[in-house]
Design goal:
With 143 residues, this protein is an all-alpha fold. It has helices spanning 3-21, 25-36, 41-65, 71-94, 97-117, 122-127.
Length: 143
């Protein structure tokens, strides 16, 4: 089976998960590109940016169309993310592929631990769905 044909079902799965949960695409894309499609690590990290960014943009346009996007917040967060991506790309050039995979694995472990340790009552979360990442209500935040 050619690599392009093998990439199609994995790309579809990653896109479905991006659309479903709104993120996590690179968590799946990098390992698939490296271990399934046999891409070199540095190329895989760059390709995952394109894959995930394209899928996210397409889905974001659909969500914006039905008014499920706070544009000011999204644009500010996106601009900061773009600046961070430029910095990350510069760092990517300085470290080995093995060190890059180790850093990626540690990041995933840290995210998993943070998710497991966060014990928030699902009913309280639903009742206060507009709370921020630090548990502050929207009205309590400083603009």
């Amino acid at each position: 089976m050619s690599v392009a044909l093998l990439a199609l079902p994995f790309g579809l799965g990653i896109g479905l998960l991006l659309g479903l949960v709104g993120g996590g695409g690179s968590v799946l894309a990098v390992p698939v590109l490296v271990y399934v499609l046999d891409q070199p690590v540095k190329e895989a990290t760059t390709e995952s940016l394109l894959v995930v960014g394209t899928a996210a943009l397409v889905d974001a346009v659909d969500h914006a169309r039905i008014r499920r996007v706070q544009m000011r917040t999204a644009l500010a967060f996106g601009a900061a993310g773009a600046i961070g991506a430029v910095g990350g790309t510069a760092l990517n050039r300085l470290i080995s592929g093995r060190a890059l995979l180790l850093a990626f694995a540690l990041l995933l472990l840290a995210a998993a631990v943070a998710m497991l340790l966060r014990r928030e009552d699902p009913l309280a979360q639903a009742a206060n769905h507009r709370s921020g990442a630090w548990g502050l209500s929207v009205s309590a935040r400083v603009s």
